[in-house]
Amino acid sequence: MKDLRRYLVLKYIQYLVLSSPNVASTFLGLLGSTYTLLLLQSAKVSSKSTTVLISSIAKADVLVAVCVVSDLIIWTFDVNVSSTALMSALLQNLLTANTHISCLLLSCIAFEAYLITFFPVESRRVRTVRNAKQTARIIWILVIAECVIFLMEDFLKANSASALISSHCTWLSHFSGRAADLLRSLSYFLGILLRIVNVYFYYKIFFSMSNR
Fold first, then answer.
1. I need a surface site. Which of 88, 171, 183, 195 has the fewest CB within 10 A?
2. How are the residues of the chain apportioned to helix, strand and coil, as percentages rounded to the nearest 5?
């Protein structure tokens, strides 16, 4: 459990403290996720709602690994990135999905810690493995839907010069553009809100444990 706590601290720093990812945090995050996935296979780690959420965070780093491997392939074989604009947009969306999934799951863990500290008995029916799995599944579905909209916008922009796109899919291009702008604004304000909420939860937990 100490290793899992260290992993959570690393992820909180990576996604909710740092303003943008860097090489060091990305490498440490991938290394920590690999170790955590191996650790969770051990029989010594009990199956709880928290471990389910942690496992989902670690699995989300597969998206980062795909981007890193793709960048290495592009660099090694000197692929012309300008000719693969859609691929570049796809990789960027994978990073966005990883960030959003991780932030939401980390916030769920913070909320669960808050419930355990202040409402241990009342929240027992809520803090189940089944609910944790359903929560993680819903988060993945919502973020994937978000990325599909972003990809649709990028695809339509890349093919805006096509007569087929301009004549028959104007409404789709307009819809995807408006939806993508709305989602970007929503994710920006949601990111700020999640940071504030997480600080509040751990502030209350810290002073509650100090008083005890």
1. 171
2. 85, 0, 15
**What confidence tens digit (pLDDT) does each residue in 126-183 have?**
999 999 999 999 999 999 999 988 888 877 776 665 544 555 566 666 777 788 888 9
What confidence tens digit (pLDDT) does each residue in 4-61 have? 999 999 999 999 888 777 888 889 999 999 999 999 988 788 889 999 999 999 999 9
pLDDT attached to residue 127: 92
Taking the model in full, what pTM does it have?
0.88
The token duo for 194 is 């999640």
For residue 163, the model assigns a pLDDT of 44
Distance CA 147, CA 153 (A): 10
Angle subtended at Cα 66 by Cα 105 and Cα 103, rounded to the nearest 5 degrees:
15
Residue pair 98/30 in contact (Cβ under 8 Å)? The answer is no
For residues 62 and 149, is the Cβ–Cβ distance under 8 A?
no
Query: Which positions ≥6 away from 203 have C-beta within 8 Å?
Result: none
What's the one-letter identity of residue 121?
V
Within 10 angstroms of residue 32's Cβ, the number of other Cβ atoms is 21
Going from N- to C-terminal start, the domains of the chain cover 1-210
Rounded to whole angstroms, the Cα distance separating 65 from 194 reads 25
